[in-house]
């Protein structure tokens, strides 16, 4: 992120068109849908297409340990500009996806230490366009609401790599300014922190 500029905003875990339209109209840059089954905010391929109907923001297909074909099918279902790999995907999956469609690839890392971030940067290198960094909690994959607590220098490797740095993890309207000041991400990713419980 350039000094003095604001990060882009991704609203993730959308499950209803009314919410996607609201986020879009409020100025969100990216709208994320959890496209892999089995998670609290998962949406099926058919439902996902209706969730993003009529929105202009870039769409992000968030997937967990899907095959190349499934990733491509899920991304195509919503016209995704980005596939966010949020599991234990291999470098081979990222390589195949990179050449399988006209989308960017973001790789998520649940960071215990700065070495976790460095490992993803080194392993995936030029195969990805962005790295999403979130806090680590046993058994949780994304959307855990766990606030990221890393030394600001932990993201230095990612920032030097020319990847877009996406910061996630427990961000709320009251905490995001402090997180931006501390980490200077290119994108902030919010989900449960802006959710109204039904």
Summarize the structure.
The protein is α/β, with parallel strands linked by helices. It is built from 7 helices and 8 strands.
Which key terms come to mind for this protein?
alpha/beta; single chain; 198 residues
Blueprint (SSEs and pairs):
Layout (H helix, E strand, L loop, with lengths): L7 E5 L4 H9 L4 E5 L10 H7 L6 E6 L4 H11 L3 E4 L5 H10 L3 E8 L2 H11 L5 E6 L20 H5 L3 E5 L7 H8 L3 E4 L8
Parallel strand pairs: 1-2, 1-8, 2-3, 3-4, 4-5, 5-6, 6-7, 7-8
Helix pairs in contact: 2-3
Low-confidence stretches: 192-196
Rounded to the nearest angstrom, the distance between the terminal CA atoms is 35 Å
Structural domains: how many: 1
* Biggest sheet overview: 8 strands, parallel, barrel
- The CATH homologous superfamily corresponds to Aldolase class I
Side-by-side strand order of the widest sheet:
1-2-3-4-5-6-7-8
Helix content: 25-40%
| Bulk shape | globular
